[in-house]
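dumping the sequnces here before i forget
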Amino acid sequence: MISVLAPLPVLLPLLGAAGTLLVGRHPRTQRTVSLGVLTAVLGVAGALLFMADANGPMSVAVGGWPVPLGIVLVVDRLSALMLVVAATVALGVLVFAVGQGSADGSEESPLSIFHPTFLVLVAGVGNAFLAGDLFNLYVGFEILLMASYVLLTLGGSAQRVRAGITYVIVSLLSSLLFLAAIGLIYAATGTVNMAQLAVRLGALPEGTQVLLQAMLLIAFCIKAAVFPLSAWLPDSYPTAPAPVTAVFAGLLTKVGVYAIIRTQTLLFPSGALDDVLMWAGLATMVMGILGAVAQTDIRRMLSFTLVSHIGYMVFGIALGTAAGLAGAIFYVAHHIAIQTTLFLVAGLIERQGRSTAVDRLGGLARRSPLLAVLFFVPAMNLAGIPPLSGFIGKLGLLRAGIADGSPLALTLVGGAVVTSLLTLLAVARVWTRAFWRPPTQEPADDTAAAAASAAGPDRDGDAVPGGERQAGWQAAWRRHAAVATASEPGWAPAASSVRALRPLPRVMLGATAAMAAVTVALTVVAGPLYGYTDRASGDLLERTPYLQAVLGAEGQR
Amino acid sequence: MTPTIVFPVLIGGLYAAGIYLLLDRSLTRVLLGFLLLGNATNLLLLSTGGPGGMAPILGYSEPEDMSDPLPQALILTAIVITFGVAAFVLAMIHRSWRLARNEAVSTDEEDRRVAARSATDADELDPDELAPEDRPAGHADSLPVRRIPADDVDLPVTGVER
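..and the predicted 3d for all of it:
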């Protein structure tokens, strides 16, 4: 049973990607295939969750190769939970993207690449969560990164290419670092299987261990956007189309966090670098949220809170106690859902208000009360207002920190509280300005012509024909960008003037509402979920269940 | 392939040159740097296999004389990945050149704008009264005036504008 189910979260999206490429000329079929595939993945992940919770860690040797030689997939409580959350988020975002596509009338556009790439991304994420050896983890990372390069630069407009270049180069560097670490680990131990490594790494000299651990952690911290390796994130995420940013914000950094959890618990349980991680967590929280408070663009503000809240997870991991890990895992699940929802809402705000800059927005609460509710609930959840799941996750981490009792842990507890308050400040500013301030101008005025005439000062020097020509090609370029997706920030006025008076598309609203409902549901099931993450962290710290599942009862040496 | 000083020096040299190129703003140099780093990492992987030996798996020799096949498999995978990513980066450089006549890594303008912003509360500002360079990035007028039009603006467009 498990040997059939475990490979499916990787296999199904890959096959689906091939299928959607084949039917690229039939958007309707393409949408049906990708929605069907992701629903199936969600079902499989749910089944794996129940099996992992009932039986503990399970492993599958792919292709029947004996364990240290072949590729092994491992499902334990942590990876099963991550799979379920990832599949939920991916499905919600895909529905949103489908809604956006049909609302923009771009069904016939040459954008058949979105669905295959999105499915490849999901396959990469699934592979990273299931990987039982380091090299397979690397391959999983590469699959999802490759797909993310394409998604981030979708449409190839100037802004996206600029942002994409930074993202690609930073990702490449972290991948090469990871690969070099794998090479060194193989040289030191003669294996890349994580269970075998868990046994053999402990026998290495202490200095070698710390070096290998540091290399892995640096590579993963770049991917997870831990300060000071986080500068690439707020630069590159906000320019992508709304659904793409949402899924990136939810999933990609958390894959890095997942890899950090594995490194710290399975491979290097000695905790040699815990203090460094603690400081990194503190810096991530504080620097990230200070950046968020300074921003005037909703998407950039959300990107900075994303960085900031990664610090909470790093805090929990660095504590190294069962309570800390349980809190971190709970926080990962909560944060994936919440951050995705907020970025989807930002996409809706952009459609409604034609901008994501708070000083351009106003009166959204009157224009769309439902949108206001959809923003308010996840935003309060992000800030950690009781009784929502953000509060429960933060409370768990704070209690773990106080239980630890060391001065450094208590400093982080203080930093976490301050970060939470500043998060509240950042989202409340958006809330009051974008939703409650009287609109600065009526939407009907904001046509492309008005924007062009307002641009007078910097065009004064131009002769009139030149200006016209320029406006002409700018409009052409906007059309071109609008084909890609409608959510290019810079081009918002032109792209949305067509649908000025239309209400928000129902499918997009529905998808966002469903994701918001998921975040509220996390609050409702927080008790059982926290029990589950407790058991998951127990497994991680004990290590023997994992080793037994992979190597068998006798092979642990 | 006995362990020699050649390998470490070669790998170290490639890493140094690669990182030097990666730090450049010109994208072509960044790409070259990435390729050098990729090769350095591949050589590092190769050197982890220990001293070389006869071809493995085929059964030509005793297991003691075989070279370790695993690093070679890893290198093959890594080469394929590096190759694919390099192709993608080349495509991006090309795109960047066509759009902006520029292949340097540019700065994040919104970041500069936030940093240069005065302490005035954003509530009190009307973006239309600001100088163009102070306007938020989402504001259409804040886009830089381009003197050289990109050469693919007249792409045939389907959908959207009907």
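Chain A touches chain B through 76 residues (CB under 8 Å).
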